[in-house]
Specification:
Distance between the termini of chain A: 50 Å
Shape of chain B: globular
CATH superfamily of the largest domain in chain A: Succinyl-CoA synthetase domains
CATH superfamily of the largest domain in chain B: Succinyl-CoA synthetase domains
Oligomer: heterodimer
Structural class of chain A: alpha+beta
Structural class of chain B: alpha/beta
Helix content of chain B: 25-40%
Strand order of the largest sheet of chain B: 3-4-2-1-5-6-7
Number of strands of chain A: 18
Number of strands of chain B: 14
Distance between the termini of chain B: 20 Å
Largest sheet of chain B: 7 strands, mixed
CATH class of the largest domain in chain B: Alpha Beta
CATH architecture of the largest domain in chain A: 3-Layer(aba) Sandwich
Number of domains of chain A: 3
Number of helices of chain B: 9
Strand content of chain B: 15-25%
Number of domains of chain B: 2
Radius of gyration of chain A: 26 Å
Largest interface: A-B, 56 and 70 residues
CATH class of the largest domain in chain A: Alpha Beta
Strand content of chain A: 25-35%
Largest sheet of chain A: 6 strands, antiparallel
Shape of chain A: elongated
């Protein structure tokens, strides 16, 4: 779960990382009052979960209450990369002497925690590593613990930092590593970590993504909002318990696993246009596939559906009953092709075929996609 | 010989009394797996499909000599069960459940490495040796005995790849699901090494997907350490960036973990890249016969 900047900033601050004075607002009037209370200049920052927000016009500066009000109105009327701006963070402008970079992340291959530090900041870490490869250092540390201060200091020392800035940057990285471990993050990043004239530092951006599998046991430590999908079908998918990603085609896909779902999407894309990626995981029930059909049919302009299931851990015959119940109740007439193999396959085929769903018995998904393409071809 | 297990390996089932655990235990027994014991805390003394249940792994190992374990334990309890299993001296562990917090998995991985334990998962369908035994949830009907090894990050795509091969008369030596989480308990090169050493395996199919760096890193191992032919299919060619494709690990971030970066690395290492799963048949025709 990716947190909004204002939520991440609150958590960072609670761990002792310096963060600029700030307020969250939802109207131009609130923006003006916040700016007057904080003192000028202020930065107005759209709270949307997209990368490259600054370059997309999501950040503005104001020198007066009136200007804050006007700029807030403009931002609140805008969308950034398709996501409507609904709130702004008003932040007292920090006078930045130089910019640094700090992050903690899961290193998938080693299974360890990666600590990353940079003597530059403000650009994406990918761009930094390409353009200024000497500006970043990283260390892998064992899971379950924060960085020791000497480890963080060693990193910044190797980047050429000294004196008060060295201590301030070291302190922030150690605290960020505590956030990472104690809040079970996938990534925690401050870019840039601003160095101010007196040698202290301030987190002028805050990125924090909590492991989805840990959100439940972390819930007492997390804000209640967090990631909200801007796409209503994706939100509905989450609600019914499937993983749904909206695409711009017209062939619906239902699969019983993520790998199979991706492969099905790729194979459909060779001939037709996938409307979505959808996978049920290992929790298929009659009701789940009924709800899944209901979700699928909300997509406008859908021309056909491909169902691709394996009965390993999933009772696919139960799933077939749910599909068929939906088809009968709603009198669905677009072609539906199903491939379903594994435990209970014969029973599953019988349930589908009795309801007019076309069953493909071959293993290869390519064959099922070809069958659907045939059904969609206008008859000569 | 087969990779990791055969029909003699004494297997323990943890979480055997649950709905999924008991059904899958029956199917594993029917397939020929030598299941000797089950563990569910608080259920010691009962039986599930004729298999004795113990309260702890230590008791089960002492009473039955189990050397491998497969998990159907609810995800919040997996870390503790894993520590218990390693402590009891078991050296092969298959962690089937999904949604295990990644910080737990990192701790499990560190423990496994320190104790020389070979573990698969989480979010894995397990391991199946056609005609002999299986630990996990793979649906038996899709597999046939032969000499192609399969390693897959996804469960369902392992079934698809094996099924396509079986239908065309190409059997498998061993099929392994390595799991689809951001951190897995055994990396792709470690599993490739098992197949390289297995004298029943003539060639290996890797079934990968977008996200992470497993395939890229495996390419180095293939280039340096492998003599057997390798084919690879990577799912997610049409996946949009920044969207998690069902698996926690399957996400393209900042342009890394793409199909292109994986296929480029594997091709340079000498592997045959498959555009679509069914292309595996022409590779098998040329490389395995």
């Amino acid at each position: 779960m990716r947190l909004h900047e204002f939520e991440a900033a609150d958590i960072f601050e609670s761990f002792g990382i310096p963060v600029p004075l700030r307020r969250l607002v939802e109207t131009p009037e609130e923006a003006k009052n916040a700016a007057l209370a904080l003192g000028f200049p202020v930065m107005l920052k759209a709270q949307v979960l997209v990368g490259g927000r600054g370059l997309s016009g999501g950040i503005a500066r104001a020198e007066s209450g009136a200007e804050a009000s006007v700029k807030a109105q403009q931002l609140l009327d805008s969308s950034i990369k398709g996501i409507r701006v609904e709130s702004l963070l008003i932040e007292k402008k920090v006078e930045i002497e130089r910019e640094l970079y700090i992050a903690m992340a899961v290193d998938g291959f080693s299974g360890k925690t990666a600590a990353i530090a940079g003597n530059r900041g403000g650009m994406s870490v990918e761009a930094m590593s390409q353009e200024f490869p000497g500006s970043l250092v990283s260390e892998l540390i064992p899971p379950g613990r924060a960085l020791y201060p000497y480890e963080a200091q060693r990193m910044f020392k190797s980047l050429g930092l000294n004196g008060k800035v060295l201590l301030a940057a070291t302190g922030s990285l150690v605290r960020l590593s505590k956030v990472f471990v104690e809040r079970e993050a996938i990534i925690a990043e401050i870019n840039p970590l601003a160095v101010i004239a007196d040698g202290s530092v301030s987190a002028v951006d805050a990125v924090l993504e909590i492991d989805d599998s840990a959100v439940k046991r972390q819930s007492g430590n997390l804000p209640r909002t967090g990631e909200i999908s801007s796409n209503s079908l994706e939100a509905l998918g989450r609600e019914i318990g499937v993983s749904y990603i909206d695409l711009d085609g017209d062939i619906g896909i239902i699969s019983s696993g993520a790998g199979l779902g991706m492969a099905t999407m790729d194979i459909v894309a060779q001939k037709l246009r996938p409307a979505n990626f959808l996978e049920t995981g290992g929790g298929i029930t009659e009701q789940l596939l009924y709800n899944t059909m209901d979700l699928m049919m909300r997509k406008e302009g859908l021309r056909g559906v491909l169902i691709n299931l394996y009965g390993g851990i999933n009772p696919i015959h139960e799933g077939a009953k749910g599909v068929v119940r939906y088809v009968k109740e709603h009198n669905i007439t677009i072609p539906i092709v199903a491939k379903a193999l594994g435990n209970h396959q014969e029973e599953t085929w019988r349930i589908f075929e009795e309801a007019g769903v076309v069953v493909v018995r071959s293993v290869a998904t390519e064959v099922a996609v070809e069958r659907l393409a045939e059904l969609l071809r206008p008859s000569e | 010989m087969s990779v990791l297990i055969d029909d003699k390996t004494p297997v323990l089932v943890q979480g055997i009394t649950g709905g999924i655990g008991s059904v899958q235990t029956r199917w594993m027994l029917e397939y020929g797996t030598n299941i000797v014991a089950g563990v569910t805390p608080g259920r010691g003394g009962m039986e599930v499909v004729g298999i004795p249940v113990f309260d702890s792994v230590e008791e089960a190992v002492t009473a039955t000599g189990a050397t491998a374990s497969v998990f159907f334990v609810p995800s919040p309890f997996v870390k503790d069960a894993f520590f218990e299993t390693v402590d009891a001296g078991i050296k092969s562990i298959v962690v089937v459940p999904e949604h295990i917090p990644v910080h737990d998995v990192m701790a499990m991985r560190a423990l496994a490495e320190a104790n020389d334990v070979f573990a698969l998962g989480p979010t894995t369908p397990g391991i199946l040796v056609p005609g002999k035994a299986k630990m996990g949830i793979m649906p038996s009907s899709l597999f046939a005995a032969g000499n192609i090894g399969i390693i897959s990050r996804s469960g369902t795509l392992a079934y698809e790849m094996a099924g396509i091969l079986s239908e065309a008369g190409f059997g498998q030596s061993t099929v392994i699901g390595m799991g689809a989480d951001p951190v897995v308990l055994s990396n792709l090169p470690d599993i490739l090494a098992l197949f390289e050493a297995d004298n029943e395996t003539k060639g290996i199919v890797i079934v990968g997907e977008v996200g992470g760096a497993q395939e890229e890193t495996a390419a180095d191992y293939i280039a340096e350490g492998m003599t057997k032919p390798v084919a690879a299919y990577i799912a997610g060619r049409s996946a949009p960036e920044g969207k998690r494709m069902g698996h926690a690990g399957a996400i393209i971030r900042g342009g890394s973990g793409t199909v292109a970066s994986k296929t480029d690395a594997l091709r340079q290492a000498g592997a045959t890249l498959l555009t679509t799963p069914i292309d595996v048949l022409s590779w098998a025709d040329g490389s395995i016969k």
